[in-house]
Specification:
Keywords: Plastid, Transit peptide
Order of helices and strands: HHHEHEEEEEEEE
Helix content: 10-25%
Structural class: alpha+beta
Distance between the termini: 25 Å
Largest sheet: 8 strands, antiparallel, barrel
Pfam family, one: PAP_fibrillin
Shape: globular
Subcellular location: Plastid
Main location: plastid
Strand order of the largest sheet: 1-2-3-4-5-7-8-9
InterPro entries: PAP, PAP/fibrillin_dom
Number of helices: 4
Length: 214
């Protein structure tokens, strides 16, 4: 699969988002269950609500097992749905993950005198782009940009990682691009998306209350 070179995004011009207890988690935990899918989603969000985006789960195998069981239950409800259409296009904010690289940055940012803000996955189906963005203070953001192939099948999306950069105000440090593979959106609705990738890692994201633009 050929790697396509894409231009690097500019530094975001909107204020650094402040991380707070997710609106979708609050509403889902306090709402009344109306359907099996809503009940399954509420159960999953309850399990991850106190897990610090996955950092605490790393040392709690029992909790991890419970979360994966809850993901499987929600995925079973969404099985057969097409999740690679335009509903996939959004600025998605991470609620929880097992991805070690992202959790490493979040966990160890204080060592470098900073802290990690919102972690985003920004997808544009029409433009065939995916950007991973981790906000840091002082108008910095660490992000990776990926190019997708057009090989979509129901819930599977293929990608090639084409560029990465650590960027601040007036400076940037390019990082080597690497990797290609696929991810499957196991479940998607108007609030959240649940993902499993080629490395068997899981990701739970919500639709962010703002849009990140290049």
């Amino acid at each position: 699969m050929a790697i396509n070179c894409l231009s690097l995004p500019a530094t975001p011009t909107f204020p650094l988002p402040s991380r707070s207890f997710s609106t979708v988690i609050r509403s889902s935990l306090t709402g009344q269950s109306q359907s099996p899918s809503l009940a399954a989603k509420r159960h999953l969000l309850r399990l991850i609500a106190d897990q610090d985006r996955g950092i605490k789960t790393q040392s709690d195998p029992q909790k991890l097992s419970q979360i994966i069981d809850a993901i499987d239950s929600l995925a079973a409800i969404g099985r057969g749905a097409v999740t690679t259409d335009k509903s996939l296009s959004a600025t998605w904010r991470m609620l929880w993950t097992t991805e070690k690289e992202q959790l490493f940055i979040i966990k160890n940012a204080p060592i470098f005198g900073t802290s990690a803000g919102d972690v985003l996955q920004v997808i544009d189906v029409d433009q065939k782009t995916l950007n991973n963005v981790i906000f840091l203070p002082m108008e910095s953001s660490l992000f990776g940009q990926r190019f997708w192939s057009l090989q979509f099948k129901e819930s599977i999306s293929m990608y090639v990682f084409t560029s990465a950069v650590l960027r601040g105000k007036g400076w940037e440090f390019p990082l080597p691009p690497f990797g290609q593979g696929w991810f499957e959106s196991l479940y998607i609705d108007d609030e959240i998306r649940v993902v499993k990738d080629i490395r068997q890692d899981y990701l739970i994201v919500e639709r962010a209350p703002y849009s990140w633009k290049e």
